[in-house]
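One record is kept unedited as follows:
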Amino acid sequence: MSQDHLIKLVSVGDEKGVGKGHTYYSTKNKKSVERKIEVKKYNPLAKKHTVYKEKKA
């Protein structure tokens, strides 16, 4: 995986703040996506799906 296209996805936690700060690394097609990514992924610390937002890697 190329380091040039790598982005960092950071969890905002659940409604109680559990799991905040857990990270995933992924890639993004920067030509077709111009805004920051926000996705729901599984958070093993909170043991449920939470929102992940793109941050600077």
Notes: The chain has a mean pLDDT of 86. Residues 29 and 41 are 19 Å apart (CA to CA). The longest strand covers residues 48-55. The domain at 3-55 is CATH 2.20.28.120 (Rubrerythrin, domain 2).
